[in-house]
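Q: Structure tokens for this one, please.
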Amino acid sequence: MRKKKGHATEAKGWNFFEFLRRIGFVLIGIMTLASGIGVGGSSFGAEVVFVNAPRESWPQKKLTFGTDLTFRYETLYNFNCTGYGKDVPAGKEDDSIYLGRVRAGANYTPSEKVRFSLWGYQANAWDHSVPKKTFYNPVFGCENNSYEDRLELYKAYVEIRPVTQFRIKLGRQRLDYGDFRTFGLCNWANNGPYLWDAIKFSYDFGKNNFIDAFYGRTKMNDPKEFSLNHRHSYEGVGVYSRFSLPILNAHIEPFFAYKGDDTEEYEEEKGGIGTLNEYYMGARLWGRDFYNFDYDFWSSREFGRRGSDDIDAYAYHALGGYNFKGLWAKPRLSMEYTYSSGDDDPYDGDHKTFDVGYGVWGAWLGNQWSFFKWRNFQDFQVNLELWPIEGVHMVFGLHNYWLAEKEDAWYMNPRLYRDPNGDSGKKVGETFDITANVDLSKIFPHYSLLKGHRLSCTYGHFFPSEVVRNRADDNSGADWFYIQWSYKYSWKML
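A: Here is the predicted structure, written as tokens:
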């Protein structure tokens, strides 16, 4: 009986997603046809192949009010955020969700020595089949929800600049660096980690060179209680720097991080529980447009203790691309390889599964399906980017996914999809994605009302392999589609 019901659901879902696929291709076609009305710029959507966190400059305006709005519709076929296939542990396997986020606030710079920022935000999710209790975190003892939050502080800091090159920032703030792999707040997630309550010391020198050091604690995403009234999630220390090199248009970015929590709730491999003390050391080396070549190499080593377990894990990423500037749409062809270590013996007391630290593990890094969360996986990726006109950026991506260690879990749901004997294989599957990002103000420069407005959409299909068949007991493919509108603008008051 359950098989017949499952087949009926699958047939109904497939028809529905055939319709969605057609809508997706129509939308992408419209965005592509927009290339006929103008002459590449870039914008941020689900899949951004080469990204650098902007370095915040000292404001020139005395008082500004700003807003940052995002509304997105996502639909998922044959999976959701809790699992894969017809037997997902919570919610529906054919899921849809409406996401809205409002950020608004003011920046006040009374002098060249001091400035203030106060912003709030609210994040909402509608029509989500996964119940809120699913996001309860037993380690933190409360809900830690990546979709929703209520009337929270986004920024609330004071920054002092005693001399031009040196700054001190104290309060609620974002800490974004490099390509967001080590430290970063993911704008794609409706309520993404990590916001910090921290003190940061910044020293800028030369052209785009800096050294930052900070200490703080990360905000908990509990929509039921204001963040200043409950505990933080992690205690952290970080150092991040950038140095320009005289060859190959190169920049090197060494970093160090500590991530800790003294709550004795972290599971050990031999059955006990203990506290968390993780350390990260590594560097990023990158260059852009060196004789039309782009490159980006990132590596991180993780060590420390998880209760009585020794942590010994690592991850790395390599990207190489070439820009065909003389061709229409200025295409960039690139290849990437990402590796995140797994644990080949989950019971020996040596924790070898890499943890993301404070970085982004989702959409910006070609993992917009959120199947892996940067743990125990490999991804070989090929990208074709096009800039048909200023303000239009398109990405065609192919991904090939494996587990790093077959004895470790598939981290879409590690409790459900774990085979410590390693009999389920390594190959997870492949995806094909098409993403289009449009900055409306650049396409229609004479319409001032469109300034700050952006549209983006993605359609993707996942082709499952042996890990999905064996661990999730499902051989059907998966589809993902979204369309998003965003608006960002500031008004000068003084």
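A few notes: The helical segments are 2-33, 440-443, 466-471. The first helix runs from residue 2 to 33.
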